[in-house]
Design a protein that fits this description.
The chain is an alpha/beta fold. A seven-stranded mixed beta sheet has the order 1-7-6-2-5-4-3. A hairpin with a 2-residue loop joins strand 6 and strand 7. Helix 1 packs across helix 2. The termini are close together.
């Protein structure tokens, strides 16, 4: 597990952009956290890091926002308003999951039974005037991302401002 403390939304966007460079073309990322912790902000950072230059809308009402980039496909799924996991069948989820894509899934617990298991889980919580991100791997692909992220060292200026003892744990 790796932890990061980020002081503001700009740092969260920057972290997402750095993370994007480490993501393989096919990965499922679960984003967990309370309302307002920045799950969509982190996804916007990932999109920007992969070259997306347009608006990055939250799929709170549409459930799914797909993004076709030069060399990647990103599917941003927000299940906050999902009434029943079976509703995911209407999105054509099975067919979409067969494609190479990075999936950023908000509120994954609402899709239990229909979603595949994640490669990477990012839990976001409020912490000391910022956000704490806890990243944990669930597959070898997720572990490779965490190892690459840990290898980046302390490239985050937010680390020195962290009120915590340490923001990186393995």
């Amino acid at each position: 597990m790796i932890e990061h403390w980020l002081p503001d939304p700009e740092a969260q966007l920057a972290f997402g952009a750095r993370l994007a460079a480490l993501l393989p073309p096919r990965l499922i990322v679960y984003l967990e956290g309370d309302l307002g912790t920045g799950k969509t902000t982190l996804t916007r950072g990932v999109l920007a890091g992969l070259g997306h230059r347009g608006a990055a809308r939250s799929p709170t009402y549409t459930l799914l926002e797909p993004y076709e980039l030069a060399d990647r496909r990103i599917n941003h799924l927000d299940l906050y308003r999902l009434g029943d996991p079976q509703e995911l069948e209407y999105l054509g989820l099975r067919d979409l999951l067969a494609e190479d894509a990075i999936w950023m899934v908000e509120w994954p617990e609402r899709g239990l039974g229909m979603l595949p298991l994640p490669d990477l889980v990012i839990a976001i919580e409020y912490a000391a005037n910022g956000r704490r991100l806890r990243l944990s791997a669930r597959t070898a692909a997720g572990e490779a991302v965490l190892n690459a992220l840990a290898g980046l060292g302390s490239g985050d200026s937010a680390r020195s401002a962290s009120p915590e003892k340490s923001d990186v744990m393995q």
